[in-house]
Amino acid sequence: MSTETTAGTEPAALVGRAGAPFPVRIEHGKVAEFARAVGLDPAELAGSDGEPVPPATFLTTARLWSGPANDPWTGAGRNRSRVLHGEQEFVFHGRCPRVGETLTATSRIESVFEKSGRRGGTLRFSVTVTEFRDAAGTLVAEARSTGIETSRAATG
Amino acid sequence: MSAPPSWNDLQVGAAPPAYVDGPMTLTDIVRYQGASGDLNPLHHDPGYAQAAGYSGPFAVGMRQAGVLAAQAGRWLGHANVRRFRVRFQEQAWPGDVLVYEMRVTGKREEGGERLVDLELTCTRQGGGVHLRGTATYAVPDRSGA
């Protein structure tokens, strides 16, 4: 596997990088499939409109609508096999996404910082935020992902 | 979905029964990977996982985060979630039985909403903590206040 990392890249050169906005359609079938994969019966999610309410971590499926042009890490020299998922947060501004709507998502690198690893070496932390806006441009939700880039594979 | 408890009735320390799930299978992992679109082979391809230095495929943390969110939503209402955050700790493996727990750590009013703060954990039965999280739900007060 490649040993390429972003370690030589100054954080200032990464922070603020953004991908192109992309549409995310909230679809009944995908919500039902995702619900089953996290142990729910889609029928128990039925909201007031009869459609299933997307579970709280559903927006992780936005990746299915995203391509290289939408990913702020494209061309940043980061090796995905060296990046562990450290933290994940979803924030909803007053309401959840609804089946049938199309949100516009934009991902950007929010922060990059380094810490010493317990077993030596440096760990590079990076926070990537994806904002989801509705048809009126109102911020509906944010997904914030913390990646931890290691200089070698972490052993389980 | 059944109605969530009323805000007034939820006290700090309140907790639903623990949800015990497993043993986790590779099929559970693959089903989640297909649903989420995260097809990282570290979680289902033994040769790839071993070449990367692991003993074999391991769980996708986001699946268990999703199960935790699903259980919190069952309790307080899926549409009531305002914030959900998890930190991934020790890895979980096929064969693990996972225990999902949560409890109320605070109640507050903000922006005209009655909010309940939770702490959440997913623990490997006989092992350590796999996920630790916090969440906030807006829970209506149905006592008429």
TrEMBL record, chain A:
Residues 13-142 form the FAS1-like dehydratase domain. InterPro entries: FAS1-like_DH_region, HotDog_dom_sf. This is N-terminal half of MaoC dehydratase.
Automatic annotation (TrEMBL), chain B:
GO terms for biological process: fatty acid biosynthetic process. Residues 15-114 form the MaoC-like domain. GO terms for molecular function: (3R)-hydroxyacyl-[acyl-carrier-protein] dehydratase activity. Pfam families: MaoC_dehydratas. PANTHER family: HYDROXYACYL-THIOESTER DEHYDRATASE TYPE 2, MITOCHONDRIAL, HYDROXYACYL-THIOESTER DEHYDRATASE TYPE 2, MITOCHONDRIAL-RELATED. Belongs to the enoyl-CoA hydratase/isomerase family. This is Acyl dehydratase. It comes from Pseudonocardia thermophila.
